[in-house]
């Protein structure tokens, strides 16, 4: 399969609290813990003490479940992980590397990411160390030749739309919700650009300005990593959807012209409101979309993914691509996703003293999720 390290860049933005743009906004008290819990689930298979099991109001578990399922199938030593704290709003039990990021502000603020330049440059400098060491929880091996870069940040599709608009790129993104509230997001972004005194396309050629005035700290960090990989000749694949495409746009506007693969899910690639194939074409990204056949499973979690909830995130598409590369069958992937979900929820019910599993196998909603 080759040497690959999964790098998950995690953070928060106050944009997630805006009504009607993200499933993550359903429970503000739990939403801030979602990225921290995602890292814990990918690293060790369970959230740390005090972290929720991130589940959407519709019963869809975090995409971290899919990424963890693939790590278990491949063997964690075959897919080492490294985590970057790009503005986490709650502590995490997972080991992280810092880039000097604070949680992002509301995209409607005049300057939602005042530290964008610092985050970008520190992430840029971090790229060679991540590739050389494959560092992170239970990472191993003699180093990685490729970084698989992913994100987790509730509300991130709206800030991605802000960055794309500021750069003058195609203004379309996906959503964690089955029905994408894209027009609502566009209105929010327009309000933010007005507050920042920035016209659409006004930050073309200036990616740090685009993030500072219209983005989030995760985008600053991912863009910095991409530029750092280009500087050092490190192979990199973007493991995600429109948020990672927005990070690629930032890298393009920073002068990166090398090949950039984008590994996502068919749930995003086939979403006409996201228009990802067109955006990937604009940015010269090599798009690949994985489909493990969620609709063929009979587990509630698989049905929730098939409905179009939590279409991407936490490296979901990239992890599925690695499973396919390793010739792991779709049925095995689906079975392991179901097993990881059941294990997480059973452990949480036991720790909460809330009794046995629901007789119909339904998935309770312990926390707000996603983008």
UniProtKB/TrEMBL annotation:
Molecular-function GO term, any one: nicotinate-nucleotide-dimethylbenzimidazole phosphoribosyltransferase activity
UniProt similarity note: Belongs to the UPF0284 family.
Residues covered by region (Disordered): 347-371
Organism of derivation: Halorubrum tropicale
Top-rank taxon, per record: Archaea
Classification via InterPro entries: Nict_dMeBzImd_PRibTrfase_arc, Nict_dMeBzImd_PRibTrfase_sf
Stated name of the protein: UPF0284 protein AMR74_09790
